[in-house]
Amino acid sequence: MNLELKPRENCRFDAVSLGEIMLRFDPGEGRIRTARNFRVWEGGGEYNVVRGLHKCFGLKTAVITAFADNEVGKLLIDFIEQGGVATDFIRMVKTDGIGRTCRNGLNFTERGFGVRGAIGCSDRANTAISQMRPEDFDFDYIFGELGVRWLHTGGIYAALSERSGETAIAACKAAHRYGTIVSYDLNYRPSMWSAIGGKAKAQEVNRELARYVDVMIGNEEDFTACLGFEVPGNSESLDKLNLDGYRAMLRTAAQEFPNWKAVATTLRTVHSASINDWKAICFADGELFMSREYEMLEIMDRVGGGDSFASGLIYGLMTSGDPQRAVEYGAAHGALAMTTPGDTSMASVGEVEALMAGKGARVQR
After folding, report:
1. 201 phi and psi, to 5 degrees?
2. Is the model's pTM score more than 0.90?
3. SS3 state of residue 82
């Protein structure tokens, strides 16, 4: 497939993301409700993708976001700098000291184990990035003057507030105007949309965004809730994907949104919080490409697995243009990311390619 990527030498950045970044409080092997100590990470659905693209795959990346200008905001900046993602487009917003005007988001997440599933408890209302409007970022400068090859954003950011949806649309329009490839992860969260119009608002915003997207990421529930498409033959519980129905839905969607060059999703069967079957599919050029399946994959921390899939997929598309190779990169990177703690990947490109080649977990000395 031909994505018509802009030449690397003409762009300051290979990839940029737009979204919220929170502090994640991780109680390790324990529970949030009984914790006395937390390990702190940074994480966000859109940011995790560009961090993986830099830290694992070596691309030059940046993030567009905003923080309250206080010690917590500075801690988040420090985390991002340690991850090697450029902070050029981060706005620091004046706050009143107690979070009335704006604040930084917090995310308490326990990993789960066996029969006990993972639990997340986020505290993210009124964050600095949720208040940003399109005019608060100079998208013409970022995508036009500096140059960016790829923009990634998603439905979690778009659902933060009505302003967030407007800003996501403005960013995708600008990126599209300057020839930047746009990927978008639908990532439907009904609780996030409930206060700003529910499913109807989700469809209004996401259907507008979909007009500027080149690579769409989402499962069958995402396409139904965010875009109004139905997957023929699926059960109400959505416990098993009907591939024929999914393929038929994608053909319908491709007719409505001919700008989509690829659509991808992960497929996860949960045996327990610690054991999942894991694979992924990518629909491109009228064909469905499926990765190898990682059966009975042992999970340490599932949070961020889908984001690491997205970064592997993007890297594969950027470097090879081959949907099969791209979906293999994505599935392998996502699998490895779930073997380490935290939202972000600790894998190397060599480890990803070794797993793609079928090499096992023998000790390396």
Report:
1. -70, -40
2. yes
3. helix
What CA–CA distance (Å, rounded) separates 147 from 134? 18
Dihedral angle over CA of 81, 84, 89, 90, nearest 10: -30
Residue reference for tokens 């109680």: 27
Query: In this predicted model, what pLDDT tens digit does every residue of 130-182 receive, in sequence order?
Result: 999 999 999 999 999 999 999 999 999 999 999 999 999 999 999 999 999 99
Q: 307 with 342: CB under 8 angstroms?
A: no
How many other C-beta atoms lie within 10 A of the C-beta of residue 240? 10
Instruction: Report the C-alpha gap between 281 and 154 in whole angstroms.
Output: 19
Q: Are 63 and 17 in contact (CB under 8 A)?
A: yes
Q: How are beta strands 22-26 and 106-110 bridged, if at all? A: parallel
Do residues 209 and 157 lie in contact, with contact meaning Cβ atoms separated by under 8 Å?
Answer: no
CA atoms within 13 A on the CB side of 76: 30
Q: Locate tokens 């950011």: which residue?
A: 157
